[in-house]
Amino acid sequence: MTPYDLVVRSRRAVLPEGERAAAVGVREGRIAGLHEYSAELEAAEDVDLRGIALLPGLVDTHVHVNEPGRTHWEGFASATRAAAAGGVTTIVDMPLNSVPPTVDVAALEAKLRTAEGRCHVDTAFWGGAVPGNLKDLRPLHDRGVRGFKCFLSPSGVPEFPPLDEAGTRRALEEVAGFGGLLVVHAEDPALLTEPGGPTYREFLDSRPGAAERGAVERVIRLAGETGARVHILHVSSADCLEPLAAARADGLAITAETCPHYLTLTAEQVPEGDTSFKCCPPIRSAANRDRLWDGLVSGVLSCVVSDHSPSPADLKVPDFAAAWGGVSSLQLGLSAVWTEASRRGYGLDDVVRWMSTNPAAIAEISGKGGIKPGNDADLVAFDPRAVTPVDAHRLHHRNPVTPYHGRTLKGAVLTTWLRGRPVDDEPHGTLLLGER
Questions:
Q1: Taking the CA atoms of the chain, what radius of gyration do you get in angstroms?
Q2: Where are the transmembrane segments (predicted)?
Q3: Does 124 score more than 90 pLDDT?
Q4: Which end of the chain is more exposed for a tag (fewer CB within 10 A), N or C?
Q5: pLDDT digits (tens, 9 = 90+) for 362-401
Q6: What does the alpha-carbon distance between residue 111 and residue 123 come to, in Å, rounded to a whole number?
């Protein structure tokens, strides 16, 4: 047998068939063999994690990198370094909050030039669907974006306006024509109101669960009429689970995600004035959180991704009506989800399915999402028993703002390998453009 470049052994390797002791052989950046834990193997480097878990690299399909144009909010270097520190080896960048937004090929090319040589992990891209760019969707698809993000309500930035119902239908018809995917921020603007004041309760009341459900029901109807593939982003209201389950039962090509903050934080916990918790749609009640977990376990919600939407601290003013809405958690998602999942009796294999396997499948990123021969050797040494206090100032995110600051999370990433190489301060991520 040809020697391996790297062998990583663990008594808790999380493989597609479940958790077991194994030795993973890596050659030329790919997983070339799976062996018994104690197998005698020839390798340039042999790492024995013993009881530390070995996971596939996570795939986070919902990351706002914000570069170019708003690099002071975040950037490819800082975002991808944070991702690697959190066990994420592949991200998909959102098309908005960068200037220009990724709504045509020229904007995508500008983003690729900015990202080149700066990424610590592999990076793919979403395009955007906005009023007036219908003709740009097919060229963006052909250039390799993974799908198209749209809003049904205001996005928060003027350069990325929402689609009305007619525009949503046209976008769905267009992407259905070439087998594309529309990913949707689903809140009904007719049911959103301006917050009546600066408090969290007033902000929460201004974005009710009914606004999410109504928008989801509209998208389901339009998807059924057009035959398009649709993915619902960041489900925060458990009221959406019933129509999503019915759509799946009807055979529609609809998937949905939720986020660590909706599974781990609750409205009751939000300190008054702490706008690091503000996001759209909002963090809801503890009872709602329990129902989201039920939706995740049943498969109605397919995956858990960060919706890392950072901003400088000066935009997080202590007024929930005025503050920028977005949670920064890219580096913390794995530990946050594991903290709550383990408390509820779920295993690392569940977390891997939700945070690696399923996101890779939805975004059609080949070679990711599992420890199996032929896949990229994206691996994570994760200590599930570690206790990790969160200090926002020690994170790799560009700005030290996160609702997890001061909390203690369970689990710690010890090493992240990208294509068989440990991630360090030297970027060696690849820009992933889909093959068409």
A1: 21
A2: none
A3: yes
A4: N
A5: 999 999 999 999 999 999 999 999 998 999 999 999 999 9
A6: 11
State both tokens at 223: 């998807």
Helices 241-249 and 286-298 pack at an angle, to 10 degrees, of 10
Measured in whole angstroms, how far is the alpha carbon of residue 121 from the centre of its chain?
14
Share of the chain above pLDDT 90, in %: 98
Q: Are 233 and 306 in contact (CB under 8 A)?
A: no
Nearest to 61 by CA among 124, 141, 132, 155: 124
In CATH, what class is 57-365+385-406? alpha beta
**138 residue type, one letter:** R
Q: Are 175 and 229 in contact (CB under 8 A)?
A: yes
Res. 295 pLDDT band, cuts 50 70 90: very high
Backbone angles phi, psi at 303, to 5 degrees: -155, 165
Specify the DSSP element, H or E, that contains 113: helix 105-115
Q: How many CB atoms lie within 10 A of CB 286?
A: 11
**C-alpha–C-alpha distance, residues 367 and 183, integer Å:** 22
- Compute CA distances 86 → 20, 55, 121, 331, 415, whole Å: 23, 12, 11, 4, 9
Q: How far apart are the first and last CA of the chain?
A: 35
d(CA 148, CA 128): 5
Residue 79 in tokens: 């975002």
The residue count for the chain: 436
- Residues 16-62 pLDDT 10s: 999 999 999 999 999 999 999 999 999 999 999 999 999 999 999 99
Q: Where in the chain is the domain with CATH 3.20.20.140?
A: 57-365+385-406
